[in-house]
Amino acid sequence: MTIKDWLEGLSYKLVQGSLDVEVNEVIYDSRKAAPGAVFVCMKGTKIDSHDFIPQVTEAGVRVLVTEHPVEAPAGVTVVETENGREALALLSAARFGYPSRKLTMIGVTGTKGKTTTTHMIKTILETAGKKTGMIGTNGVYIGEEHFPTVNTTPESYDLHRYFAKMVEDGCECCVMEVSSQAMKMHRVAGIHFNYGLFTNISPDHIGKDEHADFAEYLYYKKQLFHQCDRALINVDDEHIDEIVKDIPCPWTGFGLKEGAGFQAENIHYVSEPDFVGVEFDIKGEHQIPVRVSIPGKFNVYNALAAAAVTLWVGVPAEKLQHALEHLKINGRMEIVYTSEKCCVIVDYAHNAVSMESLLATLREYHPKRLVVVFGCGGNRSRDRRYSMGEIGGRMADLSIITADNSRFEKVEDIIADIRGSMEKTGGKFIEIPDRKEAIAYSITHAEPGDMIAIIGKGHEDYQEINGVRYPFLDRAVVEEVVKNLSI
Ligand SMILES: CC(=O)N[C@H]1[C@@H](OP(=O)(O)OP(=O)(O)OC[C@H]2O[C@@H](n3ccc(=O)[nH]c3=O)[C@H](O)[C@@H]2O)O[C@H](CO)[C@@H](O)[C@@H]1O[C@H](C)C(=O)N[C@@H](C)C(=O)N[C@H](CCC(=O)O)C(=O)O
Ligand SMILES: Nc1ncnc2c1ncn2[C@@H]1O[C@H](COP(=O)(O)OP(=O)(O)OP(=O)(O)O)[C@@H](O)[C@H]1O
Question: Which positions make up the binding site for ATP?
Answer without folding.
Answer: 110-116
